[in-house]
Amino acid sequence: MKPLFVALALALALAGTSAVAAEVENHGTHPFGIRDLVMMDRVGDPQLSPDGRQALYTVRATDYAANKGITSIYVLDLAKGGAPVKLVEKASSPRWAPDGSAVYYVAEKDGVSQLWRRPLGASAVAVQVTHAPIDVDGYKLSPDGKKALLTLGVFTDCADLACTKERLDGREKDKASGTVYDKLFVRHWDTWADGRRAQLFITDLDNPSEQPVLLTRGIDGDVPSKPFGDDGEFSFSPDGKTVYFDVRIAGKSEPWSTNFDVYSVPADGSAAPRNLTADNPAWDASPVPSPDGKTLYYLAMKVPVSEADRFRIMALDLASGEKREVAPNWDRSAGGMQVSADGKTLYVTADDNGQRPLFAVDAASGMVTTLVTNGEVGGYSLGKSSLLVQRDDLKRSADLYTADLQGKGLKQVTHYNAERLKKTQMGEPEFFTFKGWNNETVQGYVVKPVGYKSGKKYPVAFIIHGGPQGAMNNAWSYRWNPQTYAGQGFAVVTINFHGSTGYGQAFTDSISGDWGGKPLEDLKAGWAAALSKYSFLDGDRACALGASYGGYMIYWIAGVWNQPWKCLVDHDGVFDARAMYYDTEELWFEERENGGTQYEHPENYEKFNPINHVKDWRVPMLVIHSAKDFRIPDTQGLGAFTALQRRGIPSKLLHFPDENHWVLKPQNSVQWHETVNAWLKEWTAKGGAASGSK
Predict the structure, then answer these.
(1) Residue 242 φ then ψ, to 5°
(2) Catalytic hit among 237, 264, 548, 669
(3) Most buried by CB count within 10 Å: which residue of 34, 115, 543, 584?
(4) Structure confidence at residue 694 as a pLDDT band (50, 70, 90)
(5) Binning pLDDT at 50, 70 and 90, where does residue 689 land?
(6) What 3-state DSSP class applies to 178?
(7) Contact yes or no for 548/573 (Cβ under 8 A)
């Protein structure tokens, strides 16, 4: 039990927060909170119809009682306006038929996900297109709409899909539960390997077969890649006769290789796949052919065994085999590439100084133009004369917008969550810059608390982002959303320290081998700059929070920079760098960040190892970890909690048996936030618990 004075202090802190809430409620609104966040509709996967007159997209609604999200497909008539129409419930991956007459999607029937086609019209009836005995995981339609690429998880030594199905069924019946492995990965992200590979097949849509043609025969790798690959990793040539895809050949080196290559294969499967980028030992990805079929555009890194090098835009002349970089002087990492109908312009997104805009890149000159900015472009669809853009920012969840091909005339066309957000109040964000490591400019932002009043001081949530090659951008999040803290009466401060993306490749690369060095200097300088610039920040009532690399930094500062903090919150952080190397799955990351393997360079892993500073820990800490996190296994969190308890430092452990590196289930998300918020309030209360640890 808490001592009486601690309980009283916590009650007073909660009363103060309630007073803010009551004040806002009197104006017919309430502070934005976690229950608002988890119940919001999530708009995604925008698809513009071939004639540009209709928008197709998904909306994920939350079934809180069932503790899950439900994704449905909607269509909106952009020409006539009106309300969106729900086409299909419990379905995903909507795509237009090339002639715009029907919509394709993936939906489950009898427990198996298959491809479906639904003609437009109120009385239209959906037709199941594929009848495979196993799940269709993804697809892409041919330019003429007569064929479809399918991705299926199969045992590559099986002659047909029925064999894969029989083997899976046999495993279900087998009472022996053990699995023998002879190579890595044995598990990846949150899933144990079962011997299957994601492979690429092609089927005739007018006469689909239970046994489509395998195009990736002999490819020991996953198409698309795991765990987050999608249909952007494979494509048809404009005439439909060739298929392009990217893949990492696995063998026994998969966990320490980032050598993806782009391949071509005849669409009829008459020849083996051919490697088009064998000369580059780094990552080649996302092949997109030009409309005339003469050029293949793709994204490429130059640094082997790196996942954070800049993705450059490459052009391959398919006749001569010559390659060139399209915009060599553009120091940003491109993603989500599409090509204009006339082949003259490439469209990409990229992190850029705290934003994630949509850019147009001239295919000939490499000149880059910013089209849509001030927030995050999470997805877009390119038409012949217009754009359909999914966009969000720190105060608005994703909605759809239209614009011309120059990004002009931006118009919001969906308004999901608008009524819900009208009933809430949010904090105002503001970006700032300061001089960090080596006197270089570093960016961060603050978010004022809900109910902010000039002249008052507010407790602070100092959030440290993960990655580490990532950034806290002007973007909406369903996990680390600053507004959930602002709604609790906290000011938020976050710093895009050296290692963050969107500030040039040298800035991003500077963290490798220096996890506890330059970033820590930036965090210290950023905290000092924020306190100097914003008088409403109460530096005596501040807690630091972080996840993944941010969690590593929480453990690191617990030993080397614990003076400012009343409490710490660590989610899925690295506690012991030495054990992390042997426990994680993607070894290329560890080897890149630490200059080689742990057994060859143990000193690199010990240089900034938090476990070596436990003797200096003193600040109360909440540790959060999940059993299905195979990126940073939960033994890291358990070890840290053991250290805290043995040291006698006030601490708690929140453990989820059913989550991965992220907390995704709605009720778990609420529990996560409520536990974190209670911890912050307890230790930032005036007096009592906030006076520090024993």
Answers:
(1) -130, 145
(2) 548
(3) 543
(4) very low
(5) low
(6) coil
(7) yes
- Cα separation, 418 vs 401, whole angstroms: 14
Tell me the residue length of the chain: 694
Paired tokens of 400: 């759809």
Catalytic-role residue among 188, 465, 625, 661: 661
For the record, the structure tokens of 476 come out as: 């909406």
* Model pLDDT for residues 58-76, shown as the tens digit of each residue: 999 999 999 999 999 999 9
| 8 Å CB contact between 202 and 269 | yes
- Whose tokens are 């994920």? That residue is 60
DSSP-derived letter for residue 329 is: T
Asked whether residue 24 carries a pLDDT value surpassing 60, the answer given is no
For 411-447, give one letter per residue: b (16+ CB within 10 A) or e.
Answer: eebbebbeeebeebbbbebeebebebbeeeebbbbbb
Three-state DSSP string of 511-523: CCCCCCCHHHHHH
* Strand, coil or helix: 549: helix
| 3-class secondary-structure state, position 244 | strand
188-231: pLDDT as tens digits: 999 999 999 999 999 999 887 778 999 999 999 999 999 999 99
Scan for tokens 């907390």, then name that residue.
663
Residue 22 clears pLDDT 50, i.e. is over it: no
- CATH superfamily name and code, 4-31+426-691: Alpha/Beta hydrolase fold, catalytic domain (3.40.50.1820)
Q: How far apart are CA 549 and CA 632, in angstroms?
A: 10
Q: Give the CA radius of gyration of the chain.
A: 26
For the chain, count helices (H), then strands (E). Answer: 13, 40
Q: pTM surpassing 0.85?
A: yes
- If one compares 146 and 18, the residue with the highest pLDDT of the two is 146
All structural domains of the chain with their residue ranges: 4-31+426-691, 50-129
Cβ(471)–Cβ(465) below 8 Å? yes
Which residues partner with 297 through β-bridges?
Answer: 288, 315
CB 623 within 8 A of CB 652: yes
CB 356 within 8 A of CB 377: yes
Active site residue 629: yes
Q: At what angle do helices 518-533 and 549-560 cross, to 10 degrees?
A: 80
Structure-token match 């796949």, residue found: 273
Active-site pick, 284, 352, 538, 629: 629
% helix / strand / coil in the chain, to the nearest 5?
A: 20, 35, 45
Q: For residue 117, give the H/E element and its range.
A: strand 112-119
**Residue of 36, 216, 22, 223 lying closest to 669 (CA atoms):** 36
Q: What per-residue confidence (pLDDT) applies to 630?
A: 98
Q: Is the pLDDT of residue 8 over 60?
A: no
Q: Are strands 213-214 and 424-425 parallel, antiparallel or unpaired?
A: unpaired
Burial category of 385 from C-beta neighbours within 10 Å (exposed 0-12, middle 13-18, buried 19 and up): exposed
How far is the C-alpha of 581 from the C-alpha of 265, rounded, in Å? 37
What DSSP letter does each residue of 142-174 carry, written as one string? -TTSSEEEEEEEE-TT-SSHHHHHHHHHHHHH-
Q: What CA–CA distance (Å, rounded) separates 224 from 234?
A: 8
Q: Above 80 in pLDDT, residue 143?
A: yes
Query: For residues 503 and 433, is the Cβ–Cβ distance under 8 A?
Result: no
* Average pLDDT of the segment spanning 305-318: 98
- H or E element, residue 317: strand 312-317
Question: 390, 403 in Cβ contact below 8 A?
Answer: no
What DSSP letter does each residue of 481-535 carry, written as one string?
A: -HHHHHTTT-EEEEEE-TT-SSS-HHHHHTTTT-TTSHHHHHHHHHHHHHHHH-T
Tokens for 237? Answer: 């040539």
Degrees to nearest 5, angle at CA 150 with 148 and 155: 150
